[in-house]
Amino acid sequence: MEQNKVIPTPVKTNWVDQKKKLKEQFPTLTDADLNFEEGKRDEMLKKVQAKLGKTKTEFDAIISRL
After folding, report:
1. Which residues are CB-neighbours of 62 under 8 A, at least 6 positions away?
2. pTM of the prediction?
């Protein structure tokens, strides 16, 4: 069993809707913070997670509830 396997943040297919909901829930987030670039998804999510001061588990839960 792989103990250090990274589980990806559960971003749904409609990022535009999720982005809007995140901005409503966390007004400090900007469009630049949530700019999705192909191939840089994980990097963007880590930056947002850090800006919100959330752990990966907390951030994943936020994304899952959107």
Report:
1. 22, 25, 52, 54
2. 0.73
Assigned domain for 40 exists: yes
Q: Summarize pLDDT for 7-65 with one digit per residue, the tens.
A: 566 665 688 888 899 999 999 999 999 998 888 888 999 999 999 999 999 998 998 88
Q: Which residue has the tokens 């901005």?
A: 23
**Does 35 reside within a domain?**
yes
Expressed as residue numbers, the domain containing 23 is: 15-65
Domain count for the chain:
1
C-alpha 2/C-alpha 22 separation (Å) is 32
